[in-house]
Amino acid sequence: DAGVTQSPTHLIKTRGQQVTLRCSPKSGHDTVSWYQQALGQGPQFIFQYYEEEERQRGNFPDRFSGHQFPNYSSELNVNALLLGDSALYLCASSPPPGSYGYTFGSGTRLTVV
Amino acid sequence: AQKVTQAQTEISVVEKEDVTLDCVYETRDTTYYLFWYKQPPSGELVFLIRRNSFDEQNEISGRYSWNFQKSTSSFNFTITASQVVDSAVYFCALSGYSSASKIIFGSGTRLSIRP
């Protein structure tokens, strides 16, 4: 049973560009959350998607947006990249209510130059 | 507001020593989960333990043990007879009681085990 799959694993972008990161949740999971982990810090919650809608959002600017598809997979989009957006982006999926199984992917390491 | 504090930024011990990683949390929720994750250099978050707020029993898993004290809002993690492979960054974290709740992480403790 595949866990959470993220792509790409590494990415280098230039300031001002836009980037899209992808996440496939674990089988049976319908909720996807995204986290940003800057170097030397703990992961910080960006937002969560459920039923193709953003359900919760952390303290991140509107440059960060997302999408969830009918098959529960998700994308994280970041516009107008800043050097400070360089980080490890982690996707996590969780199952429907009634069971617990918060599962993280291996992450996408984004470097903005 | 929810908050997790890991006051120890870095710890370095010699192999086979015991080491305790401290974690203090803040929440107004009466029901919540506490976690410990390990992050090796590869970057993947490795789940170690989840403990709900109702269960204050200490837990032991091999060389790992966890001490949850609700009265002091602490959830400390001890590695007994440390090994070089234990070297990693360890995160303590807190979430609400739903599987959809966001997880609040501490800033992490970098543990180095010297041979």
Question: Features of this protein?
Answer:
heterodimer; A: 113 residues; mainly beta; 7-stranded mixed sheet; 4-stranded antiparallel sheet; B: 115 residues; globular
Total helices of chain B: the number is 0
Average residue-wise pLDDT of chain B: 94
Largest sheet of chain A: 7 strands, mixed
Proportion of residues in extended strands of chain B: over 45%
Mean pLDDT of chain A: 94
The global form of chain A is globular
- The percentage of residues in β strands of chain A lies in over 45%
* N→C terminal distance of chain A: 37 Å
Summarize the largest interface: chains and residue counts: A-B, 29 and 20 residues
Q: How are helices and strands ordered from N to C of chain B? A: EEEEEEEEEEEE
Instruction: State the distance separating the first and last CA atoms of chain B.
Output: 41 Å
**Poorly predicted regions of chain B:** none
Described by the principal axes of the CA atoms, the overall outline of chain B is globular
Calculate Rg of chain A over CA atoms: 13 Å
Structural class of chain B: mainly beta
Number of helices, counting only DSSP H or I runs of 4 residues or more of chain A: 0
In helices, the fraction of residues of chain B equals under 10%
| Uncertain residue segments of chain A | none
Supply the helix-strand structural class of chain A: mainly beta
Oligomer: heterodimer
User: Quick one: how many beta strands of chain B?
Assistant: 12
Q: What would you note in describing this structure?
A:
The complex is a heterodimer of chains A (113) and B (115). Chain A is built from no helices and eleven strands. Chain A is mainly beta and 113 residues long. In chain A, strands 2, 4, 5, 6, 9, 10 and 11 form a seven-stranded mixed sheet that branches. In chain A, strands 1-3-8-7 form a four-stranded antiparallel sheet, with no helix packed on it. In chain A, β9 and β10 form a beta hairpin. Chain A is globular and about 45 Å long. Chain B has 115 residues and is mainly β. Chain B is 0% helix and 52% strand. In chain B, strands 2, 5, 6, 10, 11 and 12 form a six-stranded mixed sheet that branches. Chain B has a four-stranded antiparallel sheet with strand order 3-9-8-7, with no helix packed on it. The termini of chain B are far apart. The chains are: A mainly beta (113), B mainly beta (115). At the A-B interface, β4, β5, β9 and β10 of A face β10 and β11 of B.
